[in-house]
Design a protein that fits this description.
By secondary structure, this protein is of the alpha/beta class. The protein has helices spanning 20-38, 54-63, 67-84, 98-113, 167-176, 184-193, 226-231, 233-240, 263-277, 308-315, 317-327, 338-368, 382-392, 394-403, 407-428, 430-433, 440-461, 466-476, and strands spanning 4-13, 42-50, 91-94, 117-127, 132-134, 152-161, 181-182, 201-202, 204-206, 215-216, 219-224, 255-259, 285-288, 291-293, 296-297, 334-336.
């Protein structure tokens, strides 16, 4: 088993301020990064921004500023939100970084030199929003099949990557690596997509139409397709942002976390690009679902876009992190509602965990001078053994669930111990034992088990709700390091 773990989010497009969807992916990546650090792995956690392309150029033009200024203005909204959400990224990449652009050009030149990039005339339906071409059979009623916006017919001379050459090798790889695309429903989607002939990929745009991009090293009149530029970030970051002199020490990536809308781009475009570059494919690409709000699609026009900053201000960062990963199985679509948020916040964080910590520490203070007593083996009961076994089974279960990116099931398992410990307090009634000197040995055993459960829970909840874990660690006087 490798002792390295490389997790990435998509690099987010700087066309607007970040919303719940951006937060969801990034929090999930953060949980994985923190979890694997606690297991002693050498972790590299990458996130960042995709700053090139037609949408950025148009937005900047509309605002009367140059594209770089537009990107520089929007970038802090993402960086500040990650700080607010307690995101522990190791690097934050921007595709306008000079180092990144030079690496993109190097890979382009390498593919060109191997005759994997060629020039040809092309006429097709172009979607400005998705910044991609569609064939006649893809377009329905003059609309992009992805975003349902109008497309326009464009004829121009472009450079193409010989993506079709890698259709069968990609199919073979997916078949022989069941965990490569997850969850299984998304894997089936990609295999369905690959049943049709795979066309070569247009990877350039003429500067006369789009000037804001990475210039092709072999044709100064063209810039590269924004997705080619963006996808290379997963490799380029390893060369100039990773804390190592070995450029590809962390490659292949352990997991690319993406939204389901960009699965094909990663599973097909990126995979075939890597094959052309003669690089190993990532170990896993996991496509999660989308969030609706009170059953409706999020949109500015509806006024229902969830602002992560506002949720944190109202409920706290840990409550927001907890809800997003507890409410919905990762990989499925989810619905956000304030009533559901408040319900989990009150029932699970405040009542279950909050009360367990408060009651246990109060009793340790009142009945044991704030110290963990020595357990008396002779006073052990089945209640104690059940609690101890549930605690000892906790980390193997978390390892299994997070290995499958089952964040909600990991939290479910943790809260099973929380609820069992609260029941244990009610059944053992330490406050009654404290009144009878003859029950002193039994009281010490009960308090010992409660302290042990809190110790286990502090480590278990840390990846998900790190502020809460830090507070628990401080109150318990634990000296263990999380990382």
């Amino acid at each position: 088993m490798s002792n390295k773990f490389y997790v990435t989010t998509p690099i987010y497009y700087v066309n607007d301020i970040p919303h719940i969807g951006h937060a969801y992916t990034t929090i999930a990546a953060d949980v994985l990064a923190r979890f694997y650090r606690t297991r002693g792995y050498e972790v590299f956690f990458l996130t960042g921004l995709d700053e090139h392309g037609q949408k950025v150029q148009q937005a900047a033009s509309k605002a009367g500023i140059d594209p770089q200024t537009h990107c520089d203005r929007l970038m802090p909204a993402f960086k500040n939100l990650w700080a607010t959400l307690n995101i522990s990224q190791d690097a934050f990449i921007r595709t306008t970084d000079k180092s990144h652009q030079a690496i993109v050009q190097r890979y382009l030149q390498g593919l060109y030199d191997k005759d994997l990039i060629y020039q040809a005339e092309y006429t097709g339906w172009y979607c400005t929003f998705d910044e991609r071409f569609w064939t006649e059979k893809d377009v329905e009623n003059g609309q992009c099949p992805d975003c349902r916006r109008p497309v326009e017919q464009v004829s121009e001379r472009n450079y193409f990557f010989r993506m079709s050459r890698y259709q069968q090798p990609l199919i073979d790889h997916i078949k022989s690596h069941p965990g490569f695309i997850r969850p299984e429903s998304r894997r089936n989607e990609v295999m369905g997509f690959l049943q049709k002939p795979l066309e070569d990929l247009s990877i350039s745009r003429p500067k006369s139409r789009l000037s804001w991009g990475v210039e092709l090293p072999f044709d100064r009149d063209c810039v590269t397709y924004v997705w080619f530029d963006a996808l290379v970030n997963y490799l380029s970051a390893l060369e100039y942002l990773a804390p190592t002199t070995d450029a590809l020490k962390f490659w292949p990536a352990s997991v690319h976390l993406v939204g389901k809308d960009i699965l094909t781009t990663h599973a097909v475009y990126w995979s075939t690009m890597l094959m052309g570059m003669e690089r190993p494919l990532p170990e896993s690409i996991f496509a999660h679902g989308w969030w609706t709000v009170d059953g409706e699609k999020m949109s500015k026009s509806r006024g229902n876009v969830v602002d992560p900053n506002a949720m944190v201000e109202q409920f706290g960062v840990d409550a927001f992190r907890y809800f997003l990963l507890r409410e919905v199985p990762f990989g499925q679509d989810g619905d956000f509602s304030h009533s559901a948020f408040e319900g989990r916040y009150n029932a699970e964080l405040a009542n279950d965990l909050g009360n367990l910590v408060s009651r246990s520490l109060t009793m340790l203070g009142n009945f044991s001078n704030g110290r963990v007593p020595t357990m008396d083996q002779k006073s052990q009961t089945d209640l104690d053994r059940e609690l101890a076994k549930t605690a000892s089974d906790l980390f193997p279960a978390i390892n299994r669930h997070l290995g499958n990116l089952e964040f909600n099931r990991a939290l479910e398992t943790i809260w099973g111990l929380v609820q069992l410990a609260n029941q244990y307090i009610d059944k053992t009634a330490p406050w009654t034992l404290a009144k009878d000197p003859a029950q002193d040995a039994r009281l010490k055993t009960v308090l010992f088990h409660l302290a042990e459960v809190l110790r286990f829970l502090t480590l278990a909840v840390y990846p998900f709700i790190p502020n809460t874990a830090e507070a628990m660690r401080s109150r318990l006087g634990l000296t263990v390091s999380f990382d």
